[in-house]
Amino acid sequence: MNGEIGFYRANEKPYGGFSNLFRREIEFEGVIYPTAEHAYQAGKARRPEVREWLMSAPSPALLSMAAHGLYHWDIAPGWSKTKFERMRAILWEKFTQHQDLNELLLSTGDNRLVELPRTDNPTNRLWGIVNGRGKNMLGILLMDVREELQLQKRTRNIAAR
User: Fold this and answer.
1) In this structure, is residue 3 part of a structural domain?
2) For residue 122, what are the domain limits?
3) Are the CB atoms for 120 and 128 separated by under 8 Å?
4) Residue 1 domain-assigned?
């Protein structure tokens, strides 16, 4: 790997598009969501009324905060086992539905992508790295999607010859 690219806030240039709070509609499972965060959190709710309540949040950041505060009985069964698969599928849709985001992700080459939240808590250490600690699942899933996009691009280039 060449180096490391850190990202976190949706408004940071040039890599704010990697944030799930980045305001870009995506279609997922037949529904159009305002952000990847909306698509992700929609899968977390056990009941439709909880999902509707989450989706009514006035911003992606408030949606995220509300979803993290759900009681365990409001969370879909098996969420801890399915959330990473769901996030990867959402990221695939986000980066294949928007050419500019696709190009941004591919422009990172083979650099390690790392979400770098500023607040140290278990959620941020799961999805990113805080103070040198964390699993960086969002970065890992983005790199997985990037690898698949790179493979598709190489396959198309070979086929075009």
Assistant:
1) no
2) 10-160
3) no
4) no
In this structure, what CATH number is given to the domain that contains residue 143? 1.10.357.40
Residue 87 has, within 13 A of its CA and on its CB side, a CA count of 24
13-68 pLDDT, tens per residue? 999 999 999 999 999 999 999 999 999 999 999 999 999 999 999 999 999 999 99
Domain count within the chain? 1
Which tens digit of pLDDT belongs to each residue from 104-119? 999 999 999 999 999 9
